[in-house]
Design a protein that fits this description.
By secondary structure, the protein is of the alpha/beta class. The chain is 44% helix and 13% strand. Helix 3 (118-131) links the parallel strand 5 (97-101) and strand 6 (135-141).
């Protein structure tokens, strides 16, 4: 474990960006990184939110291409690594990047939000710095939940609430709640533009440096 090797993954950047410094969240993240280096292991994080996002990512990109007139929107497979950041934007255009988010269900679709969640702001600043782009488009796409995840969710609810085996009626109610093909795809997309901010990048670099210095104290 070499503290100076610490780099922040773009998707985890917000963990370092507390209002008054790294804070306890940042310290916990840095220690988790150190543990993963020590044991040579990577923790697998699973949740219904992440599962749907991973499974539906390419369909979300196809939906953006179909509706937004942005040109060809192919999945980026290149892993970027700089002196302080690492990450893989979903799509890279000539002068901007696209990152897709697939809300787990309609209740968290940001239809009326004016600004993007701060976590995504920091993530996009890392991506733009890594790719040399000056604009990022965070695209929320509400897609049908895969049927195996719907069934899993419905069965879990049924047993947890004392209904026992999943009934067809309950299953169909979950299908209704978790699929959206009756709504035009154009109404299920919300895009936030984020511009590159050199000052934000400087602040992230400062926090990465703080994390490296903190890890030095753990020796």
């Amino acid at each position: 474990m070499k503290p100076q090797n610490f780099k922040i993954r773009a998707s985890s950047c917000s963990k370092l960006m507390g209002a008054r410094g790294m804070g306890k969240t940042g310290e916990a993240y840095a220690k988790h990184w150190a543990l993963s280096q020590y044991f040579g292991r990577t923790a697998e994080i699973q949740s219904k939110y992440l599962q749907k996002g991973i499974i539906m990512e390419e369909e979300a990109l196809d939906s953006i291409e179909l509706t937004q007139n942005l040109g060809l929107v192919l999945k980026n497979e290149t892993w970027f690594e700089g002196e302080f950041f690492t990450g893989t934007p979903d799509n890279i255009q000539s002068d901007f990047i696209i990152d897709v988010k697939c809300p787990c269900d309609w209740t968290i679709f940001p239809l009326y939000d004016v600004d993007v969640k701060i976590d995504y702001y920091w993530q996009m600043q890392c991506y733009m710095h890594l790719t040399g782009r000056k604009l990022a488009k965070v695209c929320f796409v509400l897609l049908d939940t895969p049927f195996h995840l719907i069934e899993k969710e419905a069965r879990s609810y049924s047993f947890a609430n004392g209904y026992g085996e999943l009934s067809q009626e309950m299953y169909e109610s979950f299908v209704k709640k978790m699929t959206y093909s009756d709504i035009p795809i154009e109404r299920r997309i919300k895009i936030f533009d984020i511009e590159a901010d050199p000052e934000a990048v400087k602040k992230i670099i400062e926090r990465v440096t703080d994390a490296r210095n903190y890890l030095e104290t753990l020796k």
